[in-house]
């Protein structure tokens, strides 16, 4: 009988520790204090990060892609995620967010209300971005039009709808280190920054475990398509044997060395890279040639 109070105390302490460990953790305020964003540089970040590709309305083309009304559906093993409105609308979008709130969302997956975002939003990659790039991104996005379309709720069932549990997911799978380390050239280092952080290539091209964490030992080795239709290709040298110039050309034109054309969501990636300096695609190509081959 004397054990009961002790066990209850241990359980309470364990619950308190778990609650503390899974709490959303925003960036230190000092990281964004005093930063000013550059709109022109932010536009480059916007396209490199593929913001419109996920947050434009379904089927949007041309200038309509800059109306970040949300609504696209992304199927997964955990349910279907719906991209939210991230336009400048102050009620239904992110208009009025401070830079600190914006950076917390992008780099930490923490909402202004202090809740975890689902990692369908690739903050696991964006967390490696430079804070100045995030400030530049916000400066550009603040110039985009507002849209009052309400965000639709995710279609996620129990237990995945318990957002607090994402704190545990972050403890397990958020990593500050680069996947590809060692001595890299300046071009390869830039390519790593684009591929591992800003353009978040690994989020689609790397297989995941049962909890949805990236299997870093099989980095960029390809993965099942989350919607159940086909696979996302292996882009390590084990399968992607194109030359670096051929890879760079594909990223900006959408044509393979065999003159096949890009399809699916990758078409958006090509559209985005075509808006960037050619040196960016060349940097990603140089990086991919340094990635270890993985079957």
UniProtKB/TrEMBL annotation:
PANTHER family (UniProt xref): ALCOHOL DEHYDROGENASE CYTOCHROME C SUBUNIT (PTHR35008:SF8), BLL4482 PROTEIN-RELATED (PTHR35008)
Molecular function terms from GO: electron transfer activity; heme binding; metal ion binding
Keyword field: Heme, Iron, Metal-binding
Residue intervals of the Cytochrome c domain: 37-145, 186-292
Family annotation (InterPro entries): Cyt_c-like_dom, Cyt_c-like_dom_sf, Cytochrome_c-type_DH
Signal peptide: none
Species in which this protein is naturally found: Gemmobacter fulvus
Protein name in the entry: Cytochrome c
């Amino acid at each position: 009988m004397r054990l009961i109070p002790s066990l209850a105390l241990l359980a309470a302490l364990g619950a308190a520790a778990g609650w503390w460990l899974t709490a959303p953790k925003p960036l230190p305020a000092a990281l964004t204090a005093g930063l000013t964003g550059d709109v022109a540089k932010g536009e480059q970040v916007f396209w490199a990060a593929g913001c419109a590709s996920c947050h434009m309305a379904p089927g949007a083309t041309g200038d309509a892609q800059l109306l970040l009304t949300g609504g696209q559906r992304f199927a997964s093993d955990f349910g279907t995620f719906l991209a939210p409105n991230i336009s400048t609308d102050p009620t239904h979008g992110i208009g009025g967010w401070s830079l600190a709130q914006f950076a917390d969302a992008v780099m930490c997956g923490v909402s202004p209300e202090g809740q975890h975002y689902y990692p369908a939003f690739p903050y696991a990659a964006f967390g490696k971005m430079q804070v100045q790039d995030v400030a530049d991104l916000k400066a550009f996005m603040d110039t985009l039009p507002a849209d009052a379309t309400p965000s639709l709720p995710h279609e996620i069932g129990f237990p995945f709808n318990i957002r607090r549990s994402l704190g545990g997911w972050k403890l397990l799978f958020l990593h500050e280190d680069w996947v590809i380390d060692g001595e890299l050239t300046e071009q390869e280092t830039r390519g790593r920054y684009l591929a591992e952080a800003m353009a978040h290539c690994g989020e689609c091209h790397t297989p995941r475990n049962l909890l949805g964490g990236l299997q870093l030992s099989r980095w960029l080795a390809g993965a099942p398509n989350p919607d159940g239709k086909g696979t996302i290709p292996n882009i390590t040298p084990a399968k992607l044997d194109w030359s670096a110039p051929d890879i760079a050309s594909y990223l900006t034109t959408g044509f393979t060395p065999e003159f096949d054309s890009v399809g699916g969501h990758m078409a958006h990636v090509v559209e985005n890279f075509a808006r960037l300096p050619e040196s960016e695609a060349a940097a990603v190509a140089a990086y991919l040639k340094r990635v270890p081959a993985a079957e």
